[in-house]
Amino acid sequence: MPAHAPHIQRAGVDELEALQTISVRTFTETFAAYNTSEDMQQYLDQNFSRSRLLEELNTAGSSFYLMYSGTELAGYMKLNSGTAQTVTGKQHAIEIERIYVLQAFQGHKLGKTLLSHALSIAREKNYNSVWLGVWEHNTKAIGFYEYNGFIKTGSHEFILGSDVQTDYLMEKQLN
Fold first, then answer.
1. Residue 152 sits in a domain of what CATH number?
2. Which listed residue, of 1, 131, 135, 141, carries a Cα 20 to 30 Å from 78's Cα?
3. What is the pTM of this model?
4. Is residue 1 part of a domain?
5. Out of 65, 76, 145, 168, which one is annotated catalytic?
């Protein structure tokens, strides 16, 4: 395997520190320029603390996957199924709650590799669809998902600190 070849591994408790680091870095890179530092810090503290991530790692139906480019941690993804999903009523579906690649690794098809991994897991477990929420102003991500067969099916509120934002719900049918 070449030194730069991407690979994905499921994260467990032993990867908690790496998971926290990649979570904070990717979220900050993606959204800090569009939000106040106070809102960002509040969100990071509430959602990416060691205790919160440990709780999520131990939640039935939730799983994290770390993406490496060679030996470098380049991104990650969180999948939810069943009652772990962030929106109720999604029967026979799996949610991609988080899928992020560090800016330094964008343009290397690592996001596509993570998405393909999620779709493979969904098909393997016989889910009918894969869905996710994406910030309405994240046109790059929306375009990526549309290119990969996702369609907008609705929206919901996303709270970042004290700011109420809108996420589009997007879904891809698998059958």
1. 3.40.630.30
2. 1
3. 0.94
4. no
5. 145
